[in-house]
Amino acid sequence: MAEALVLCDVTENIAVVTLNRPQALNALSDGVLAALKEVLGGIAVDAQIKVVVIRGAGKVFCAGHDLKEMQAGRAAEDKGAAYFADLFSRCGEIMQMIPQMPQVVIAQVHGIATAAGCQLVASCDMAVAAADTKFGVNGVNIGLFCSTPMVALTRNLPRKQAFEMLTTGEFIDAARARNLGLINRIASEDLERETLDLAQTVAGKLGAALRIGKRAFYEQIDMPLAQAYAHTGAVMVENMLLRDTDEGIAAFIEKRRPDWA
Question: Can you name one GO molecular function term for this protein (predicted)?
Fold first, then answer.
């Protein structure tokens, strides 16, 4: 029996999702996209899971779309137009699922993250990378501008820096990626351990507060200033009225650990 294209291991309240196509550099084939959507959809409705880590098996995180599959799509009578439209729609749907999930999603990145693989990193809430990781949206090097990866990239990087990456196809290293805001941390030694440390720190917070806060973060980010304050003020009221928030504040004042349900 063939091994699953996407693996999911849940320990306590952290789910580790592994792209498991190492022989193809974890390229986002039709099968991988379908499996990833199914796994993330299942996690999204699991109230016990607070944090998700997405990583890649083998030598790299993800090398983007499966170019061999894409070329095979050209055999259709329409030269692949319908297949390509469906492919990019399905990929975009998954990239949009990640910020919409109630859990905090962290990319654990190593080797390379290129094109749609870089898009996946940019779509996650946070990212930790090995020091020797390379990032790129290099489709332009083969005549395919990374227009869909651009959506996530331009919501992470300054405009001119994103445009340079997209038009030159050049890779940036982890240090540059951190400086530009694509990743949060560079692992000094053990990538898996340091990513898990971050995941455990987040998972130690009140789950309801994380869910409310993540939702509000993405809702307010593109609002005009006054609307954003009005919206987040209402969110703060919602948060304050939680039983466990009341308990958390009382515990802080009384210098004790909160008794969260």
Answer: hydro-lyase activity
58 by DSSP, 3-state: which?
coil
Query: Which residues, including other chains, have CB under 8 Å from residue 75's CB and lie 6 or more apart?
Result: none
Nearest to 53 by CA among 90, 94, 28, 19: 19
Read off the pTM: 0.95
Local structure of 211: helix, strand or coil: helix
Phi-psi region of 205 (alpha: psi -120 to 50; beta: other; left: phi over 0): beta
Q: Which of 8, 118, 144 is nearest to 62 (CA)?
A: 118
CATH match of 6-203 with 3.90.226.10:
yes
What's the CATH class of domain 207-253?
A: mainly alpha
The tens digit of pLDDT for each residue in 96-155 reads 999 999 999 999 999 999 999 999 999 999 999 999 999 999 999 999 999 999 999 999
| Residue of 153, 134, 163 lying closest to 25 (CA atoms) | 134
The amino acid that residue 6 corresponds to is V
What length does the chain have? 261
What are the extents of the domains in the chain?
Answer: 6-203, 207-253
